[in-house]
Design brief:
There is one protein chain. The chain is an alpha+beta fold. It contains 18 helices and 10 strands. The N terminus is likely disordered. It binds nicotinamide-adenine-dinucleotide. Nicotinamide-adenine-dinucleotide binds next to α8 and α9. The site of nicotinamide-adenine-dinucleotide (NAD) has 23 residues, from α8 and α9.
């Protein structure tokens, strides 16, 4: 195979000594030198955007810049009788519009009814090397009071806020190489997502667990399968609102497809996450934690399936539900640190992490409804392409009102492609 000169001259050395000690501007300049970055790119990355570099520099390591993702507002959303404007951070077109449309279609029938199973997080402590795992399990369970004391001692602040240790579970699992004794501590983390909180407790407990059992403790960390922190949403769409029985039945069939087939369920759930992750991101929460929870919960029966359900109620209306782990917080992590996250919370006017989680579940369901409806009727591309056409128009250099005009032409021609866009832009400009 021939390696061109371009590739060779692009060889970069990723070993840069003292990178973490530099200021963001110095790091950016270093990267510029290292990869030969062009001036315009450096200027773009050097702009603070809505996150100032000082803040960014304290959030993660080796900061050079920040990336801006559009925040769109979902309208028409009513959750438990209260209207809410929902900020969604996403790079994908059609996501915000789908929520607005879906929410409008169930607004008059009550919007979204939501609930929450609790705000409990689970941390795991892995114990190996015990010859009597069943007895070890009982020995750990005997120490419940002591375990509660140690956990709550880690976080008096959380206890004052009504949270803290709630329950203890010990499981013996069969793993390659022999049995492991897995302790679960179950902690109410209130308005925090709680990863750091429960990790601290698990680490503090570990030496005692080794001592009580004579085994060796390895891992001490939360489980992202947060199945004691489930957010639920439900909504009813009347036949009038959705456009008749044929649409409804197509949507039910689409749901049943996802319920029966993991290949379809993955895409079905990805659509739900389009809504969910956008709010999780906009509020500075951990998108990966919520995603890991969603997909592991979807596979809890041993077979991966749909997170949502659709049925026909006694009146012939379509009823949709969504139930999934929603470990999000109002404090902790980046939520308090990122100024845009704080602004996003202000827009929604939420006072507790559960309220936020419930809004997210409602929007996840709305997003899912929108995708199913589009798929069961006109297909997803029509709506998608209209917005995608704007992107393509900008890629080929359209500016100002050219963007709108060019996008319209591409959609009408049903050819949303860069080559066509370039030709049409030239023609448009030729017309003057
Ligand atoms: P944190 O430790 O920063 O904040 C939680 C603490 O805030 C609580 O322990 C409590 O002392 C205090 N607090 C103040 N007001 C509170 C209130 N109203 N309710 C509850 N607590 C209150 O953050 P965290 O939520 O424990 O951890 C979240 C962070 O952990 C995220 O950034 C996440 O990315 C990260 N993380 C995730 C994983 C994972 O998902 N596997 C693992 C490690 C870390």
């Amino acid at each position: 195979m021939h390696h061109g000169d371009d590739l060779m001259s692009n060889t970069v050395n990723s070993r840069i000594s003292g990178f973490h000690k530099m200021t963001p501007a110095e790091r950016l300049a270093t990267v510029q030198r290292a990869v030969g970055l062009d001036g315009a790119s450096v200027e773009q990355l050097g702009k603070p955007g809505s996150l100032d570099l000082h803040t960014a520099d304290h959030m993660i390591e080796n900061v050079i810049s920040s990336i801006s993702i559009p925040i769109g507002i979902a309208t028409n959303v009513k959750v438990d009788g209260r209207d809410v404007l929902v900020p969604m951070a996403t790079e994908e077109s059609s996501v915000v519009a789908a929520v607005c449309n879906s929410a409008r279609q169930c607004y008059d029938s009550g919007g979204f009814i939501t609930s929450m199973s609790g705000t409990l997080m689970i941390a795991q402590i892995q114990l190996v090397g015990v010859s009597d795992p069943k007895a070890a399990r009982i020995r750990i369970l005997e120490q419940r009071d002591k375990i509660e004391e140690v956990c709550n001692g880690c976080d008096p602040m959380l206890v004052r806020l009504g949270g803290g240790f709630r329950d203890l579970e010990v499981r013996v699992i069969e793993a390659e190489g022999g049995p492991m004794v897995i302790t679960h501590i179950i902690v109410d983390t209130r308005d925090a997502m709680g990863a750091n909180t429960v990790n601290t407790m698990a680490e503090r407990l570990a030496p005692s667990i080794a001592e009580w059992t004579g085994g060796k403790v390895y891992l001490r960390i939360l489980s992202n399968l947060a199945d004691r922190r489930l957010a639920r949403a439900r909504a009813t769409w009347t036949l009038d609102a959705i456009g008749g029985e044929a649409v409804r039945d197509g949507m039910i069939s689409a749901y049943r497809f996802a319920a029966a087939d993991p290949y379809r369920a993955a895409t079905h759930n990805k659509g739900i996450m389009n809504g969910v992750s956008a709010i999780v991101l906009a509020t500075g929460n951990d998108t990966r934690a919520v995603e890991a929870g969603a997909h592991s919960f979807a596979a809890r029966s041993g077979r991966y399936t749909s997170l949502s359900t659709y049925e026909v109620d006694a009146d012939g209306s379509l009823v949709g539900t969504l139930e999934m782990p929603m470990p999000v917080g109002l404090v902790g992590g980046a939520t308090k640190v990122h100024p845009s996250a704080q602004a996003a919370l202000k827009i929604m006017g939420v006072a507790t992490a559960s309220e936020l989680a419930r809004i997210i579940a409602a929007v996840g369901l709305a997003q899912n409804f929108g995708a199913l409806k589009a798929l069961a009727t006109v297909g997803i591309q029509q709506g998608h392409m209209a917005l995608h056409a704007h992107n393509v128009a900008m890629v080929v250099g359209a500016v100002g009102d050219e963007v709108q005009r060019l996008a319209k032409i591409l959609v009408e021609k049903r050819q949303v492609r860069q080559d066509v866009a370039a030709e049409e832009l030239a023609r448009l400009r030729g017309e003057g």
